[in-house]
Design goal:
alpha+beta; Alpha-Beta Plaits; 2 domains; four-stranded antiparallel beta sheet; 6 strands; elongated
């Protein structure tokens, strides 16, 4: 947690210091802004984005106390929807297959309707989602 606070403080400091180094050049009718920043800011941002999760929603398509049916459900989902991530989670005593990473409940509802013919018993759950999936 301390590392996360240091990372956030570093990002805040770097982005506020970045505005100090912005230089505005004005032409007759047009203004141009040149941003001068350290390339390490982008690397730090990518590292942060790759490891950060936030609260969002997923669609749960399976829940059961045996692993094999959960793996089969996940595999059948991935055959039909290879671009959508399918997560197999174990919360004792249940194996749960949850798909997608959605910021809002409306996005999750839209996707649930899209897959409802294949998975009629699916429902929306609140979950930690991966932020790098949202940036695509």
């Amino acid at each position: 947690m301390l590392t996360m606070k240091i990372l956030l403080a570093s990002l805040f400091t770097l982005f506020t210091c970045q505005s100090i180094f912005c230089q505005a050049k004005s032409d007759s009718l047009q203004k141009k802004t040149t941003v001068i920043k350290d390339s390490r800011i982008d690397i730090l941002g990518e590292t942060y984005k790759a490891t950060y999760t936030l609260k969002g929603y997923r669609v749960q398509i399976h829940s059961g106390n045996k692993r094999q049916p959960a793996n089969q459900t996940r595999a059948s989902f991935l055959r039909v929807h290879p671009k959508t991530k399918a997560h197999l989670d174990y919360e004792q005593p249940y194996y749960k297959v949850r798909v997608g990473d959605f910021k809002t409940k409306m996005e999750a509802l839209k996707y649930k309707k899209f897959i409802s013919k294949e998975f009629p018993n699916s429902f929306i759950v609140s979950d930690d989602i991966e932020i790098n999936e949202l940036s695509k």
